[in-house]
Automatic annotation (TrEMBL), chains A, D:
Disordered: annotated span: 1-60
UniProt xrefs under Pfam families: E1_dh
Lineage: Bacteria, Bacillati, Actinomycetota, Actinomycetes, Kitasatosporales
Basic residues bias: start-end ranges: 18-45
Organism: Streptomyces beihaiensis
Annotated protein name in UniProt: Pyruvate dehydrogenase (Acetyl-transferring) E1 component subunit alpha
Keywords of the record: Oxidoreductase, Pyruvate, Thiamine pyrophosphate
Record-linked Gene3D superfamilies: 3.40.50.970
Cofactor section: thiamine diphosphate
Domain of life according to the entry: Bacteria
Dehydrogenase E1 component domain location: 95-371
UniProtKB/TrEMBL annotation, chains B, C:
Name of this chain's protein: Alpha-ketoacid dehydrogenase subunit beta
Alphabetical list of InterPro entries matching this protein: THDP-binding, Transketo_C/PFOR_II, Transketolase-like_Pyr-bd, Transketolase_C
UniProt keyword annotations, A-Z: Oxidoreductase, Thiamine pyrophosphate
Named cofactor requirement(s): thiamine diphosphate
Residue ranges of domain Transketolase-like pyrimidine-binding in the record: 6-181
Natural source organism: Streptomyces beihaiensis
């Protein structure tokens, strides 16, 4: 039902021998003759703010497969990566986006109600996250920032796991290994190096797994991100740098970070960069598949800039009215990633109202579950302060733990308050 | 009117405003300090009034912020840099300790780098990871830097004025959980020396030494102890490098007992230095070892645990009792 | 033969070789560690024997080195990273303190990041700026890291083995000016625990505590003092985080006097912690305050001044005399 | 006699109004009709290792005006920047290179004799340093690494000042303000940010001074360098990033830092990058003038990659035989920057043997003076440890200074040994 490349493209991929093979032939999918039955292919409409320009790969600047109105446009370079996508899979992508948005909205509400301390909303970025997230294979590894709730969803992470850190009961705490989805990283840019190192390791292991590192337009300025480009290029690491350019870093517009489109950054490090319409889930799926397959074939890193928009506040603590105009948001609402796919599904596939109604119910159920789980989420016990500081123990931690326990015990007449 | 009752955040805002007005070389730089006025609104309205050339939204790169501030200082400017949260200063740590701290000495005094780095620090605001840390010892250990932390609005105003006027780099730690605590600021007063500690409350039985956010806790502890008949003196250190050992020494020679309180982890925290130094200076006066109350040797915990992690009234009073029991 | 007389640099080299041989997941990474064998030849011959995939010359970017090492560790590798000199670790400081130190706790124990960071440190080699520093306190203050420093070839060999085997990040400080000091290494011995201090010389009148390069100075001071009829005990701390207070306490309960010696600046150096802690533990035993001998609160000076800056025999003995005079 | 743009190009330049004017017109020099009398202009010979390629500016990849054999080749883009260079000025450049090399050789010898602790030789990089150094104006500001002895020479810094830190008597210590030549910076890459900040300040001040930041191929990997590119681009700072790609970072070849030519790095940050033959002093002069004039006109930063070769060891402590082949060095000897200009001077100008003989004597005199000054260089007094730690004083330093003095005094029976 959902597009997971473990089922589709990657199935073909898995038949191929691992990395460093067949650098010439692009991909099995490229040869696929299956075309979308009703997808009228015409030349892409471009966002007016960016003049058409050639990427290093000779693609036109903004890769778009679905217009804001939900019309399918042809793209000779990238069509092949989604030609095999079935209507069911398209509905899967739609569902992913709706569920991600519903989850996100619930978290915003929970924050307002005081159940969470903070929440960074993904509103508007569903296509970038679902398109890229669904392009990954099970054995790929994802290094998110703190906003990739939609990617987490695609990776099969229980969304309630994401709430612990924003409720203040842990600093992440899910097992990164169970879904190959690393912990959220708050220090901007740091995770791009972890991703690069992980990818170097994957290559050393002789697998054809790839790694994807998420980061923002603001993060592009951090030295760590530049260093990750250098390491990835020098070691030809199988990593995709996926930049969600949502045009804002808290209150700063992208012009405070760069004066040229961010995807161009890659070229100076010796690997390709592509800008994709980040509100077009199909384009994001196609471009990320292309980039991941490059990685699998041993062609090294790629930078994908998903051009999108942060429709909400930076986090629930933020007040965007201080720094940006309302009409900016309005213009982006017209490019809503969910509406666009819905328009396509409604006009070009046999998706009936029942599907949408069922999904409504399903997403409401998700909201309810999230609410319940959060409200029931226990506070950690006090002693958790001292847990997992070290893997092999540490004498000072032991000493302080013992002192703390004794100190707590001295209030023995008071309730213990140990939570779990 | 020169005397106003202000919250600390607003006192810092006024102090920045005064500095921008008085000296055209003063610049304010950092992430989101412009239109947004910073995530705590400390720089609110400054860009509007002084323009983008003086109140500068920077790229999201702390090393770049501090590194370019050094260059601007070499050119004659006096940049006041904001680091958005304590946990985000580390990308700039190299520029701070290898360049900012050492450049004056490297040049045998022939250049000055009067950069102020403002860092909202400490916990107690229910924040996520990296937003509640107290890294002051990591700067105070480094020669060439000065490190201060005000505990009230008046000091917030004046110590920032003095930090900006200083020809040395100053790391100015702002007690973020006290940002909205109000007290009187006399903007025409003659301030005390930047690096002097002050006796915030007199007492006879034991000295509590603290700075920044913990001063309030210590004052409350002293008030509570008074009800039990114990007379505690509270020293607000104000400056961590240099640390005013003389004032603490005088106090301890009187009270013969010292408890140091800070949010930072105890192990190698600034209390270790104060304990070692005061023990050396007051060896024959001390009736009890210097005790320390602070954070544990663990990452700052998730918000739901921070009340247990942070030194509070009870833990301070517990240490007072232990000291008095000697 | 398992027992060899080796210089420290060579003992480290052998230890790396053993680790590379025993565990295919061990990697050696850093600037110039390959063909050159590192600027001190500590990694000499390793790339030749284990190949470029295991002994990796990295781009010139310390944050990148540590950051990718973290990623490799997450993938199951055990990277042993070399930082070329003490003063060049700071670009990696953010990755070390916000990522490496905290990731295990952040994941509630579900990931491990067994990265070892080797740092040649300390002065006495007549080098230019940034090549002679002792930044260990800046790491020891940070929870999540372990910090050790061997003083002799046997410890250099074994402590590195143990650091690599540890599932925690370990900062391994190498006393670079002792690299060519030789002593016996038994590569088949059963080593003591990594974080235990050892009594390197027994004595009755006063305890000298040191680690890394200063152990030798303390041993010489003890020998010199003996001629004057003073019996000094020398404790080689070996580990700075955790610090083995128990061993020092036992020693001080016997000798009743403690002098701590390190090259790092005294102010907020690791001696401050040892002084504060031992004073608390041994308050009624101490005949004199714990005295500290170390660097001054100044940038490490140019080479022609380092003999004056570094704690040497005379300064240690001076502190011994001052302590004994109480 | 020497080419100092305070005398030549810049003289014309000074007549122009400051920055942000005349962005269209390239430079006064461009219109100069004076051409080298005997400079046969033919198409450039390229180093075989780099295929000709277009830069963002449409220049051919490696800008070269003098071939290794000393033949002048035409370059339509850059000729204008050196057309006004007189034979006397060419001899000046030659002299600068010879004097720099002589000074450097003396320092190497002094290190061998134990007078210096360490020396990083500039051997082979004279043209890159002299060409770029002579392109700067008096009011420009230079941020060097630790190897820019030739630039220091051009800036009028007394070369013996450079020796203090390598002798271990100070950590730099000259007054950066007196020649607008900052202290050497050892932590790789840091100074590029200082340069950028300084340039931002120069622009704020409304001057048309520019700033030049030197760094190496290895340094290009440091996050600080990337961040300086970002800041310079975003604030359009008048700074020239001058990368001497001497192909080695201690033992690591440039391939450990990048897989594409370094000058291309700039494009991804939105400013031009140019590769120049770093062993061709005329080309370095021309390209750096062009870049500095862009900065003056308010056109922002430029990256210049001077492609050169470190002919000696990294420093006197290094042993290059461990990691590179002798024949590599031999091939670069054929491209020696000094020989190449000498060939040109001898064949295309009326430079007579007397000039070379006089210069020999002059450089020997420099060597002698350097020797004498170094040997007489006093050790600093012990108390210097405590000097200049702070500008405004610090109680702990005062306390330690006093303790130290008392401690020293306790050895009163021994000689004071206070040096100065
Ligand atoms: C090193 C560091 N500096 C500052 C911050 C504070 N901060 C959190 S998010 C953010 C903006 C990030 O912008 P961007 O990279 O575009 O990601 P987005 O939030 O738009 O998804 C900032 C400045 C941080 N987390 N880490
Ligand atoms: C941050 C930092 N890391 C490591 C070093 C040690 N180091 C000194 S020079 C050097 C190589 C520099 O290479 P490059 O930038 O190409 O300059 P070059 O020496 O070739 O002129 C290294 C690694 C340093 N000085 N600073
Ligand atoms: Mg953004
Ligand atoms: Mg180089």
């Amino acid at each position: 039902m959902t597009v997971d490349s473990a089922d589709s493209t990657a199935a073909a991929q898995q038949a191929q021998p691992p990395r460093k093979r067949a650098a010439a032939k692009k991909t099995a999918a490229k040869k696929a003759t299956h075309t979308k039955k009703a997808a009228a292919k015409k030349s892409p409409k471009r966002s007016p703010e960016t003049a058409p320009r050639e990427t290093p790969q000779g693609q036109s600047e903004l890769v778009q497969l679905l217009t804001p109105e939900g019309e399918r446009v042809a793209n000779p370079e990238f069509d092949a990566y989604v030609d095999a996508v079935t209507d069911d899979e398209l509905r899967g992508l739609y569902r992913d986006m709706v569920m991600s948005r519903r989850f996100d909205a619930e978290a915003v509400t929970l924050q307002r109600q005081g159940e969470l301390g903070l929440w960074p909303s993904l509103l508007g970025q569903e296509a970038a996250q679902v398109g890229s997230g669904r392009a990954t294979r099970r054995d790929d590894y994802v290094f998110p920032t703190y906003r990739e709730h939609g990617v987490a969803w695609c990776r099969g992470v229980d969304p309630t796991n994401l709430l612990g850190m924003f409720r203040g009961v842990n600093n992440g705490g899910w097992d990164p290994g169970s879904n190959n989805f690393h912990l959220y990283t708050i220090v901007i840019g740091s995770q791009t190096l972890h991703a690069t190192g992980y990818a170097m390791g994957a290559a050393k292991d002789g697998t054809d797994s790839a790694v994807i590192a998420y980061f923002g337009d603001g993060a592009s300025s951090q030295g760590d991100v530049a260093e990750s480009f250098t390491f990835a290029a020098v070691y030809n690491a199988p990593v995709v740098f996926f930049c969600q350019n949502n045009q804002w870093a808290i209150s700063e517009p992208t012009e405070r970070q760069t004066r040229v489109p961010l995807y161009q950054r890659a070229q100076g490090y010796g690997f390709p960069g592509v800008r994709v319409d980040g509100n077009d889930v199909l384009a994001c799926l196609a471009v990320t598949r292309w980039a991941l397959e490059r990685a699998r074939r041993g062609e090294g890193p790629t930078l994908v800039e998903a051009f999108t928009y942060r429709m909400g506040a930076h986090t629930t603590s933020d007040d965007p009215t201080r720094y940006r105009a309302d009409d900016e948001r309005a213009s982006w609402e017209a490019k809503d990633p969910i509406e666009r796919l819905r328009a396509y599904l409604a006009s070009q596939t046999d998706t009936d109202e029942g599907f949408f109604a069922e999904l409504d119910a399903e997403s409401e159920a998700l909201g309810k579950r999230v609410r319940e789980v959060v409200r029931a989420m226990p506070d950690p016990g006090h002693m958790a302060i001292f847990e997992n500081v070290y893997a092999d123990g540490h004498a000072l931690v032991d000493e302080e733990r013992a002192q703390f326990a004794a100190y707590q015990a001295s209030f023995a007449d008071e309730p213990a308050g140990e939570g779990v | 009117m020169a005397v106003k009752k202000l919250p600390i955040a607003k006192a810092i805002n006024e102090s920045l405003r005064t500095a921008l007005e008085n000296d055209p070389k003063v610049l304010v730089m950092g992430e989101d300090v412009g239109k947004l006025g910073g995530v705590f609104r400390v720089t609110d309205g400054l860009q509007k009034d002084f323009g983008e050339e003086r109140v500068i939204d920077t790229p999201l790169a702390e090393s770049g912020i501090v590194g370019t501030a050094i260059g601007l200082a070499l050119r004659g400017y006096r940049p006041v840099v904001e680091i958005q949260f304590d946990g985000f200063v580390f990308p700039a740590y190299d520029q701070i300790v290898t360049q900012l701290a050492k450049m004056h000495a490297r040049a045998l005094g022939k250049v000055k780098v009067p950069v102020v780095i403002r860092i909202p620090y400490g916990g107690g605001i229910g924040a996520v990871e990296h937003h509640s840390e107290s890294p002051e010892a990591l700067f105070a250990h480094v020669a060439g830097l000065k490190v201060v932390s005000p505990s009230n609005a008046s000091d917030a105003y004046w110590m920032l004025q003095q930090a900006i006027q200083s020809d040395d780099p100053v790391i100015y730690f702002e007690p973020k959980r006290r940002y909205w605590d109000k007290s009187e600021v006399d903007t025409e007063a003659v301030p005390g020396a930047l690096h002097r500690a002050v006796v915030a409350r007199e007492g006879a039985d034991l000295t509590l030494a603290a700075y920044g956010p913990m001063v309030k806790v210590c004052m409350e502890a002293a008030a509570a102890a008074e009800e039990e008949g114990k007379s505690l003196e509270v020293v607000d250190l104000r400056s961590i490098s240099p640390m005013d050992f003389d004032t603490v020494q005088r106090s301890v020679e009187k009270t013969r007992r010292l408890v140091v309180v800070h949010e930072a982890p105890v192990f190698l925290g600034s209390g270790a230095e104060l304990a070692a130094r005061i023990t050396e200076r007051c060896f024959y006066h001390l009736e009890a070892p210097v005790l320390r109350v602070g954070g544990y040797h663990a990452p700052y915990p998730p918000a739901r645990l921070e009340d247990e992690y942070l030194p509070g009234l009870d833990r301070v009073l517990d240490a007072v009792d232990r000291s008095l029991a000697y």
